Amino acid sequence: MPRKKRATSAGKASPKPAFPKTAADLEPAPYNPRQISPENAAALGVSMDELGDISGIVFNVRTGRLVCGHKRMDNIPGDAQVAIDVEETDDTGTVGYGHMKVAGVRWDVRFVDWPEPKEMAANLAANSPHLAGEFTLDVDQVVKSAMADLPDLSQDLRLDKLLPTERVGDTLRPMKVERPIERVWILIGLPADRYADHAEALDEIAQAEEAFFDSTIR
After folding, report:
1. CA 110, chain centre distance (Å)
2. Which residues are bridge partners to 57 per DSSP?
3. DSSP secondary structure code for residue 63 in this structure
């Protein structure tokens, strides 16, 4: 259900927006607290090549169903009009683009023509935490900065839930991350019948001068 838009504060507007001209001009945020493994980055690349942009609202004209954007659509009124901007195709199955305007805000819609199995694969890929990467330990600094500058918005977005936590008794409390980070503890559990497959790598870790290693059989 649409909510009333909050007033935004905000700082001095740029007199002339500096729109980028090439992909190289889209500078990454230096504070971005995200990382992704090489394997998952490769899978994301496959998703981009095979499925196109599935980050927003995507509708499959063949099945007449949403592929992605279900939760976004829960916040858009059912009587919002869909305007068709362009009918064009590409190698990923796109057949057109459109948009909806809600309270002055534009929400883009991508239209695809996919068989149901591809629709399902795209739905899963769009919601896969593996393709989204994971937060680094620096997330606490970014969250605290946002909470200090925009407390109400941060609370409504539940950004505090992104802070690292630790269990104390039956409760979770924010974890204090000491900096600089000097040591990272990793708990690895392996099935007993697979231990031999990884023994050499674990041995190498155990022999490292800076490592503390404890092997426990349970």
Report:
1. 19
2. 109
3. T
